[in-house]
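Hey L., structure's done. Input below.
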Amino acid sequence: MRQLILLLIIFLCATTGVVLLLYVIALIRKARPSERTHMDPLPIALRVVWPA
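Output:
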């Protein structure tokens, strides 16, 4: 009896994990990149370090 309950708990956890994974994948696919065409210039200190 305990083995059956343990198996059921493992099955429910695995199913929940798969559902959450699919949900996160769906959210990532819906995300769109920023459509910002104008970006501020980098500050001088960051411009010096940026190529590195």
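Helices lie at 2-30, 44-49. The two ends are 62 Å apart (CA to CA).

-- N.
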